[in-house]
Amino acid sequence: MMGPAHSLSGAAAWLGVGAAMAAADRPMPWPVLVVGALICAGAALAPDLDHKSATISRAFGPVSRVLCEVVDKVSYAVYKATRTTRDPRRSGGHRTLTHTWLWAVLIGAGASALAVTAGRWGVLALLFVHLVLAVEGLLWKAARMSSDILVWLLGATSAWILAGVLDKPGNGADWLFTAPGQEYLWLGLPIVLGALVHDIGDALTVSGCPVLWPIPIAGKRWYPLGPPKAMRFRAGSWVELKVLMPVFMVLGGVGGASALGYLS
Asked: ∠ CA(108), CA(109), CA(112), 5° rounding?
């Protein structure tokens, strides 16, 4: 799928988690719901770090472009080193390493470790990166018409404000993990979810997605999971723009309202 659809699906997924937590009598404080949805929307773009033409490659100027080229080469090297004789030959690393469950878990765990060990500055860094990505995905038309510096300033300002809100007692710094020193450990969860939602979205397209790597399926290490081919669509097609994106918006609205108790 394209960047905007990925971001919308990520936000909707976290709002759905919020609704499920409310139904289980473990409601999220509203700052956790909002911040988590924005982080998940940004994280849903991150697996495309292996694609130099993706939305994320433009998000941070030359830094993200170089990073995408490096990740593409590393992903391709991993693919070549682990492919079986049934896996097709390919010339690049797109939709390989960064489109797997293992990558999602490792990135989420790394984010949680950063938040816990680096304190406030680690939290601010995570918020800044993912808020910039959320702007690029959710407000992609406005982001493309404005300068990168304005988007970065918006991300930095929003990160500072939201971190201050979360720090206040009862607003969610210690949501889910309450032991001393575990504040913000939960920040890795929307990152894992965003990456997995991205993979599921790509699995619906023509090429499928090797979500379960390195688990072999039908003799392939990089088996492209997906529904029957008749049910798949091309990225950027009318199915994505006219059907899936409106569905994501509706589901996100319902999930958010349920999480905040408006539908109970």
From this structure: 90
Q: Which amino acid, one-letter code, is at 56? A: I
- Those residues with Cβ within 8 angstroms of residue 200's Cβ, 6 or more apart along the chain or in another chain: 209, 211
Residue 140 CA to chain centroid, in angstroms?
Answer: 16
Q: Is 15 helix (H, G, I), strand (E, B) or coil?
A: helix
Phi-psi region for residue 218, left (φ > 0), alpha (ψ -120 to 50) or beta? Answer: left
Kindly write down the DSSP assignment for every residue of 115-135, as one continuous string. Answer: HHHSHHHHHHHHHHHHHHHHH
Per-residue 3-state assignment (H helix, E strand, C coil) for 188-249:
HHHHHHHHHHHHHHHHCECCCECCCCCCCECCECCCCECCCHHHCECCCCHHHHHHHHHHHH
Q: Are 204 and 230 in contact (CB under 8 A)?
A: no
User: Regarding predicted confidence, which is higher, 35 or 240?
Assistant: 35
- The mean pLDDT of 95-123, rounded to a whole number, is 94
Q: Torsion angle of alpha carbons 159, 166, 172, 178, nearest 10°?
A: 100
Amino acid 28 reads: M
Residue type, 82: T
pLDDT band at 80 (very low <50, low <70, confident <90, very high): very high
Radius of gyration of the chain (CA): 18
The model scores a pTM over 0.90: yes
Rounded Cα distance between 212 and 99, Å, is 9
